[in-house]
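About this split. The held-out portion is used to measure sequence recovery: a designer receives only the structure tokens and must propose an amino acid at every position. Recovery is the fraction of positions where the proposal matches the reference. Here is one held-out target exactly as it appears in the evaluation file.
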């Protein structure tokens, strides 16, 4: 029998197999890769890739217990619930003045006015920190989406960060003060039109 060298095509196949094996060994792409600064991509992420209802929330402080529905007000729902992803929660323990890139805060807005009778879910308002996205406003991407994913507002929404910049905010966060008194203890400050 003639012992012939492997034809070039076969070598390519081997090479591809080795590359695939190395990638598999390194873990490949994480299945929950963060989304781009786009409300639809963000909605897919928080509803499917990394469902926000499985996230944690801010630690309880003397002003709020974030594990429950909270009383709020215009322009957000009369009842809200806040969820925070792991990236933000890890940084919140030793808060340095700004949350890191990849931080996501999801707020459920309900139609009712009483946490005991919250009504139905009306919208999700979301803050998502994307490096370099809007350096003048701490790189937050803002979005308001309906429960079915319909987008009401997204991007550098002046109305969102305008109100969230009120005195006492910490990195535009209003309801949680990272150990100190938050800018807003309970309901919203002044009624204003939401998009
Ligand atoms: C007129 C003021 C106002 C406007 C406009 C506003 N917010 Fe808020 N937002 C608040 C207040 C007050 C809170 C805290 C009280 C609460 O929990 O409802 C809050 C809380 C939040 C939170 C939870 C994190 C935090 O700051 O405590 C998110 C997320 C959020 N808003 C997103 C948005 C988005 C997205 C928009 C724009 C589409 C927006 N907000 C517009 C007043 C505002």
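Reference sequence for scoring:
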């Amino acid at each position: 029998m003639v012992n012939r060298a492997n034809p070039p095509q076969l070598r390519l196949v081997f090479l591809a197999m080795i590359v695939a094996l190395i990638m598999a060994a390194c873990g490949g792409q994480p299945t929950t890769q963060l989304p781009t600064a786009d409300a639809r991509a963000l909605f897919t992420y928080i509803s499917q890739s990394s469902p926000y209802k499985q996230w944690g929330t801010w630690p309880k402080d003397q002003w709020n217990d974030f594990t429950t529905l909270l009383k709020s007000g215009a322009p957000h729902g009369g009842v809200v619930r806040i969820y925070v992803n792991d990236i933000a929660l890890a940084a919140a323990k030793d808060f340095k003045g700004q949350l890191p890139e990849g931080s996501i805060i999801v707020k459920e807005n309900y139609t009712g006015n009483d946490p005991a009778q919250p009504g139905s879910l009306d919208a999700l308002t979301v803050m998502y920190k994307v490096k370099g996205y809007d350096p003048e406003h701490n790189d937050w991407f803002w979005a308001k989406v309906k429960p079915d994913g319909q987008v009401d507002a997204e991007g550098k929404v002046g109305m969102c960060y305008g109100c969230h910049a009120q005195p006492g905010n910490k990195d535009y966060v209003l309801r949680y003060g990272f150990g100190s008194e938050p800018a807003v203890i309970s309901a919203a400050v002044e009624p204003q039109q939401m998009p």
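Annotator remark: The helical segments are 8-25, 39-49, 86-92, 158-164.
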